[in-house]
Design brief:
Blueprint lengths: L2 H7 L2 E7 L21 H15 L5 E4 L3 H11 L6 E3 L16 H8 L6 H7 L8 H18 L4 E6 L1 H12 L16 E7 L2 E9 L7
Parallel strand pairs: 1-4, 2-3, 2-4
Antiparallel strand pairs: 1-5, 5-6
Helix pairs in contact: 2-3, 6-7
Length: 213
Amino acid sequence: MSTAHSKHLQPTRLLLVRHAEVEQRYHKTFGGTIDMNLSPRGQEQARILADFLQRRKIDAIYASPMKRVQQTLAPFLNNGAPKQTILPALREIHFGDWTGLNWEKVCEKFNLDPHEWLDHIERGVTPNGENGPQFRARVEPCLREIIKKHPGETVGIFCHGGVVRMILSILLELPLPKTNAFEIEYASVTRVVLHPRLAEIDLLNFTPWRDLP
């Protein structure tokens, strides 16, 4: 049996990796399109994440162009990882007028419960921001192309919390707000195994840096 044929018999595995912790001033803030840097703790998380990923076979890497993702990925790329392909469609959702505001300010200024932010985005009530259908229309073609190119392989997708949630929404056929049930932490790895008629999560929100002080 040829290698190419045997790959088609194997499930495709997607490693969905959220960027590491960002600068302190952006914590609990709707960062979205702000091109922020990692914090010192985030840089350490990225190094530990790289050590974890180096022990796994990864056939291809796709990544958001934003600095917080590129800085998270850098330690892994510097230690023998496959060359990345940067895809602008993997950038974080645009929060419109929420951008740069913390949860309390959003609640106060727009009279909304920020903990239901995914519901608000899905309904398109974020002024001048992307709504759920627009966000999906950006991410889904990119995701489908990645899956098409890598049957039977393991692919790392380095991106953002919102993008991880949208990918899970698409693959699990869940409304976007339902993904609020999943915690997606900084520098976390979520692995989805794609079978012919089933997408299965076999690792959710794994944080190899968990024991950091």
